[in-house]
Write a structure and sequence with these properties.
Layout (H helix, E strand, L loop, with lengths): L48 H11 L5 H9 L5 H8 L2 H4 L2 H8 L2 H13 L1 H11 L3 H12 L8 E2 H11 L4 H17 L8 E2 L12 H7 L15 H14 L9 E6 L4 H5 L7 E2 H6 L2 E3 L20 E9 L2 E7 L1 H7 L5 H21 L1
Antiparallel strand pairs: 1-2, 3-5, 3-7, 4-6, 6-7
The structure holds calcium ion.
Calcium ion binds next to loops.
Length: about 350
C-alpha cells in the first residue's frame, strides 16, 4: 500500500499539507516519571568538595583564587533551572506542537530585518564556510529570535546548579563551568555577570562554554570574540560551527518519503544518523519525493545518487504521521541540538526564510 501519495494531490506548498493516512508514530512514547531534584538548603558552593577541587585546578592553571572564590561564592542554586532541565521542549512535544512554536510569520519578519541589517556579513559567512545564509538565520531565529531572548539566568548560576545539584548531567555541566572560567581568563567574558539560558548557553547562537572555546570566531576582526553583543561574530561563529561539523555545501537536508509495504519499520528504528543508502531504502519500499514529480509540488524533494547515505524519520505532524528521508546535513543540524524536532524546525524555517528573502530582493 502506498501510504504517502494516497489521495493527496494538488498544489499545496506547505509541508504540513502532506500527511500519511495511516500509521502511528513509531518513536513517540510517554515519558517515564522523572526524579525530582532540589536545591540544598543554606547552600554555599564554596563549602562543596567538588567546588574546592575546581578552584584548585583552575588556580594551578594560573587563575586568580580570590576572583574564583568571589564568583563561585556568589553562585546561587536556582530551583527554576532544575525544573526547566527536567522538561526540555524537545522531549515534551510532538512535531505538530513543536512546529507551531518555531514556524511563525513574526519570526520570519524578524529574520528579514536581521538579514537586511547583516547582508554583507551573511554573504561573507556563506563564502567563507559554505553554509547558506538561511541556515545561519534559522539557527539564530530558533535559538534567540535574533537576539531578543538570549536568556536571563546568570551563566554561573545555571552551570553551578546543574553541575552540582543535577546528578544526571553533573559531569557535563561541571565541564562547562570550568570552561566558563577559562573563557574569562582567555576571552572577553565576565564569568560573574554574563547571562544565558537555563543550561548556560550564551549569545545570539546560544553557545555553551565548550562550544564557545572550540567554534567561536572573531568574524569582524576587532580582536575580541563576542557572541553576546556582536552579531557579526555570532553569524561567523554559527557558520563555523556548521562547517566544523562537516556541513556539505549543496547537499539537500531532507525530502518527504513515501512508503510501500512495511519494510520502512526497521529503517525508522535506526534513528536520525544516516546509516543506510538510498538503494537500501528503495529496496525496503521507501522512496524520496522527486523534484521531477509533477504530481505534487513540494519544496521538500531531492534527486540524489543511489549511494547517498540517509536516515528515515517518522514524525507526528499536525495531520498524522509524516515520513522523511534525511541526509548527513540533517545530522549536522542535530549537532547543534541533539533533537530531530529541532533540526526539522531549523530546516523548515530556513525554507521560509529563503523564500521571504527572495521576495524581498
Ligand atoms: Ca569581534
Amino acid at each position: 500500500m502506498r501510504r504517502f501519495y494516497s489521495g493527496i494531490l494538488g498544489t499545496f506548498r506547505s509541508s504540513t499539507a502532506y500527511s500519511a493516512l495511516a500509521g502511528a508514530a513509531l518513536t513517540f512514547t510517554s515519558l517515564p516519571a522523572l526524579a525530582e531534584y532540589t536545591c540544598p538548603e543554606n547552600n554555599d558552593y564554596l563549602q562543596r568538595e567538588q567546588v574546592k577541587s575546581l578552584i584548585a585546578e583552575l588556580v594551578s592553571q594560573d587563575q586568580d583564587e580570590a576572583r574564583l572564590r568571589d564568583v563561585l561564592g556568589g553562585a546561587q542554586c536556582q530551583p527554576k533551572i532544575l525544573k526547566s532541565i527536567a522538561r526540555p521542549a524537545e522531549k515534551t512535544h510532538t512535531w505538530a506542537t513543536y512546529q507551531k512554536i518555531f514556524l511563525q510569520e513574526s519570526r520570519v519578519q524578524k529574520a528579514v530585518e536581521f538579514a537586511n541589517t547583516h547582508a554583507g556579513t551573511l554573504s561573507r559567512a556563506e563564502q567563507t564556510y559554505g553554509v547558506p545564509r538561511e541556515i545561519i538565520l534559522a539557527i539564530i531565529g530558533v535559538e534567540t529570535r535574533y537576539g531578543d531572548h538570549m536568556g536571563s539566568y546568570r551563566v554561573v548560576d545555571a552551570l553551578a546548579t546543574l553541575g552540582y545539584d543535577y546528578p544526571p548531567r553533573g559531569s557535563f555541566f561541571r565541564k562547562q563551568l570550568k570552561a566558563l572560567f577559562e573563557l574569562e581568563h582567555h576571552a572577553h567574558i565576565d564569568a560573574e555577570t554574563i547571562t544565558g539560558s537555563y543550561a548556560g548557553a550564551m549569545g545570539y547562537g546560544q553557545f555553551i562554554p565548550t562550544s564557545y572555546q572550540a567554534y567561536a570566531v572573531d568574524f569582524d576582526n576587532d580582536g575580541v570574540t563576542d557572541l553576546v553583543n556582536n552579531p557579526v561574530d555570532a553569524i561567523g561563529s554559527v557558520a563555523n560551527y556548521f562547517s566544523e561539523h562537516n556541513w556539505q555545501p549543496g547537499l539537500p537536508v531532507a525530502a518527504r518519503a513515501h512508503l510501500d509495504g512495511t519494510g520502512y519499520v526497521s529503517l525508522a528504528k535506526k534513528g536520525y544518523k544516516p546509516s543506510f543508502t538510498l538503494t537500501q531504502a528503495n529496496n525496503a519500499g521507501v522512496t524520496a519525493l522527486s523534484c521531477n514529480d509533477d504530481r505534487l509540488v513540494s519544496e521538500y524533494c531531492f534527486d540524489l545518487p543511489a549511494s547517498t547515505r540517509v536516515a528515515l524519520l517518522d514524525l507526528t505532524g499536525a495531520e498524522g504521521a509524516e515520513f522523511w528521508l534525511a541526509t548527513d546535513n540533517f545530522y549536522v543540524i542535530t549537532r547543534y541540538n541533539h533533537s530531530r524536532l529541532y533540526a526539522m524546525a531549523v530546516l523548515q524555517l530556513s525554507r521560509q526564510l529563503a523564500a521571504a528573502l527572495e521576495d524581498n530582493r
